[in-house]
Amino acid sequence: MDTTLLRQLNDDVWHPFPLLYARLDAPAFLDLYSPELIRAGGPAKQVFGFAEYADQTEKWFADLADRGSSVSIAFRFVERIAANDVASERGVFQLVSTRADGDGRTFYGRFHTYSRRIDGRWRICVDYDTDERSATLEEEFLAAADVNDVDAFKE
Fold it and tell me: What residues does the DUF4440 domain cover (predicted)?
């Protein structure tokens, strides 16, 4: 595996993702996705396209901001495959939600994304997540490879 592609994915997707998420910057966050996005899974077990995902994200970020709440997300990887202009990446995410009063909760989930380099920049085209087998997710998150550990995926 050419780790250069993984570093490009990090620069275009995985490094900006948590920053924009924490800033609740919906327009910049949504620009990480392809307009042809397929979004599936999640707690509601739904599937929809970019327009619905954008609407859902904008409303959720606005609601968090209005309540004075914050959210952060971190990713760890169990598989990263990239070649030419396409990539498939699987892993575990950690989401920390903190209310304005300081009360916080931590959630874990599995994700699988497919990305494509469009106009010289990587964008997520398919985004799936699940909280199946949630009892082991914290352990799996800690055992998985850090986003910057691209050498873990060299052949």
Answer: 22-124
Give CA–CA dist 46/74, Å, rounded: 23
**The token pair that represents 67 in the structure block:** 């309540």
For residue 57, which amino acid is it?
T
| Contacting residues for 44 by C-beta, under 8 A, at least 6 apart | none
Radius of gyration (Cα) for the chain, nearest Å? 15
Please say whether the beta carbons of 109 and 93 come within 8 A.
yes
Q: Check pLDDT > 70 for residue 130.
A: yes
> If residue 68 lies in a helix (H) or strand (E), which one and from where to where?
none
Among residues 83, 139, 84, which one has the least CA distance to residue 110?
A: 139
| Complete domains list, the chain, with CATH | 3-147 (3.10.450.50)
Share of the chain above pLDDT 70, in %: 97
Global confidence as pTM: 0.91
Evaluate whether 71 touches 98 at the Cβ level (below 8 Å): yes
